[in-house]
Amino acid sequence: MHSHNFLTHVATVPGSASSTVPSSAGHNTKGLISEVIYSEDQPWVTQLLLLPLLQQLGQQSRWQLWLTPQQKLSRQWLESVGLPLTKVMQVSQLDPLFTVDAMVKALQTGNYSVVIGWLPEELTDEEHMQLSFAAKMGNAIGFIMRPMQTSKTGSRPRSELKIHSSLYH
User: What does the pLDDT look like over 63-88, one tens digit per residue?
Assistant: First the structure.
């Protein structure tokens, strides 16, 4: 489902009622997978939409896991935006082929309030189902960060969410 800049999917398990969308930064979350499509020309959108949630989740006793393809998170940036250095873990240079599996394992442990993974392509239905089930199992939120694909058909690109490269060093 499209909701402005987010494609949001609430985790469900076959034969169960759908999960509760977080009412206040993940409190009472039953599991949530959300896909964020980003582009390099709108850096403010990411901070406007994602940072308040990440800051509130940082108040939980659980960790935040960032699975980044190449870049290393900047300690200075984390401190400047109010994310707790002692609760942020990063695995960088993870091959995109292993990102979904790593996210599934991390989400289901219950050790993380949020798991953020960068993927170059859309999730398959099976991958989405695995992530949704893992998020519900671990009572966690998973964000799939995916770059906006430039249109090859000549149609106008959609306005989506951007992750600015200055967030990394």
Answer: 999 998 877 888 998 999 899 999 99
